[in-house]
Amino acid sequence: MKKLLISVLLVSGFSGAAQIDIGVKGGLNIANIRQAGNIGGVGSGFYNPLFTHHIGVFGKLPFSEKAFLQPEINYSRKGSKPQDQIGNRFSLNLNYFTIPVLLGFQFDDLSVHFGPQVEFLAEFEALDQVEVSLAGGLQYYLSDQTQVGFRFIHGLSPIGSAFFTDSTGAPSGGVKLYNYLVQLSIYRTLWSK
Q1: Whether the predicted pLDDT of 6 surpasses 60
Q2: pTM for this structure?
Q3: Would you tell me how many other CB atoms lie within 10 Å of the CB of residue 114?
Q4: What value does the mean pLDDT of the chain take?
Q5: 84-101 confidence digits (pLDDT tens)
């Protein structure tokens, strides 16, 4: 009962403040994976970027004239183009369902948003299935219904790790892999109340 009362108060607080928007979004991902650690004499660094896509739905829930909460549910393809030891490149495509919950601030036609994002990997059982990231970006309003956006997503939890030993069993290095992503998006509001 207590949870229901809190939910009703939150929804009524959001709905009384300003217009609630629901819409769709999609666009370009510029994805990469950062290797942290040392393996075979190769230290930390980024692989080659992979150009992919994302699509999803969003809501904009204002709680004051300038501040809002923007939850989303997205399908997003991430990965990179690593190079093997003999120089061959291959594409590593990782399919995620992502749930960002972003705090935003509106300044005329421009908004700034940031917040946590939980991501669920849809395949590749060898990698960690759940990832936590931090997202931040900008949205520019072309009209009341259409926005364009830029977002940077920084993986906080590793998507995979490996540790190695030499022939005597002594540690010889290890790596952790983290997702990094730049998104360029188009947002289209479908419903407002």
Answers
A1: no
A2: 0.80
A3: 15
A4: 84
A5: 566 667 778 899 999 999
Q: Which residue has the tokens 């692989």?
A: 47
Question: CB-based burial of residue 4 (10 Å sphere; 0-12 exposed, 13-18 middle, 19+ buried)?
Answer: exposed
Helix (H, G, I), strand (E, B) or coil at 88: coil
**Tokens in use for 103?**
């705090």
Determine phi and psi for 14, rounding to 5 degrees.
Answer: -65, -45
Residue type, 142: L
Distance separating alpha carbons of residues 36 and 46, to the nearest angstrom:
9
Assign 9 a pLDDT band (cuts: 50, 70, 90). Answer: very low
Distance from the Cα of residue 101 to its chain's centroid: 10
Confidence at residue 48, expressed as pLDDT on a 0 to 100 scale: 85
Which structure tokens are listed for 18? 């300003």
User: 93, 52 in Cβ contact below 8 A?
Assistant: yes
For 181, residues 6+ apart whose C-beta sits below 8 A from its C-beta are: 29, 30, 31, 32, 76, 78, 152, 153
pLDDT of residue 84: 59
CA dist 148 to 76, 88, 100, 112, 188, Å? 17, 36, 17, 12, 9
Residue 84 Cα to chain centre, angstroms: 27
C-alpha dist (Å) from residue 136 to 36, 102, 130, 133, 168: 22, 8, 20, 10, 46
93 alpha-carbon distance from chain centroid:
15
**Largest Cα span, the chain:** 67
